Amino acid sequence: MPEKETDVKVISNDVELTIQPNDMLDISITSLSPESNVLFNSGVIQVGGGASSSSTGKTSGYLVDRNGYVLIPVIGKVRIAGLTKQEAINDLALRLGKYARDPIVDIKFMNFKITVIGEVNTPSTFNVTSDRINVLEALGLAGDMTPYGKRENVLIIREQSGERITTRIDLNKKEVLNSPFFYLQQNDIVYVEPDKVKAIQVSPGRSNVQYGLSIGLALVSVVTLLVSQVF
Fold it and tell me: Are 190 and 138 a contacting pair, CB within 8 Å?
């Protein structure tokens, strides 16, 4: 029996995440100076400006403000929105080099989440532990589509740099693997539209009131309103 053809392609659409306003970041700073380490990681910055601190004094996170800035001890406000993690690390390390020997900066996303709603078995918002997730993995977290989900018309909603971007992808086509929306970014919304049969269906034994009070359908209604405004 002949072997099936194996298709190998270089991944070209896996774009590194960029930092956005309202991101919560774990920023750790170390150097060869113990005194500097205490100073940079003391967690004394107030929540409104940058880092929030726990009762132990350990910094629990830096909030990127709506203008894209974080407030770092000693060096002050630094704009990092629009930068990749590595770009932000390089920028902060360069600035900190004036105050500490050989500073090492590490940045992690603390609130990378995506939302999957519509015709999926478990609609919800999911926290992502890594910096990479694709739309198929997101649907897997939501228990996959129901039989009524339109695989050829999945809506992705993304807010980036003050703009709302919407697009539709067809999961039945191989080309979706090369879509710039195949890999999701923080706060993306994936909406699986119901087919026409489900759109007019009310389950037997349930009243219209009960059906309308479903949390899943409530979320779908919000997204449908948003989509109608966009298109």
Answer: yes
Query: Is a pLDDT exceeding 70 seen at residue 60?
Result: no
Long-range contacts (CB closer than 8 Å, 24 or more residues apart) made by 199-202: none
Nearest to 178 by CA among 9, 18, 1: 9
SS3 per-residue string spanning the chain: CCCCCCCCCCCCCCCCCECCCCCEEEEEEECCCHHHHHHHCCCCCCCCCCEEECCCCCEEEEECCCCCEEEECCCEEEECCCCEHHHHHHHHHHHHCCCCCCCEEEEEECCCEEEEEECECCCEEEECCCCCCEHHHHHHHCCCECCCEEEEEEEEEEEECCEEEEEEECCCCHHHHHCCCCECCCCCEEEEEECHHHHCCCCCCCCHHHHHCCHHHHHHHHHHHHHHHHC
Task: Give the tens place of pLDDT for each residue, 164-222.
Answer: 999 999 999 989 999 999 999 999 999 999 987 665 664 555 444 444 444 455 455 55
CA nearest neighbour of 11 among 134, 98, 97, 109: 134
Model pTM above 0.85? no
Q: What is the CA radius of gyration of the chain?
A: 22
- Phi and psi angles of residue 71, each rounded to the nearest 5 degrees, phi first: -105, 110
| C-beta of residue 116 within 8 angstroms of C-beta of residue 142 | yes
Each residue's pLDDT tens digit, 73-118: 888 999 999 999 999 999 999 998 888 888 889 999 998 999 999 9
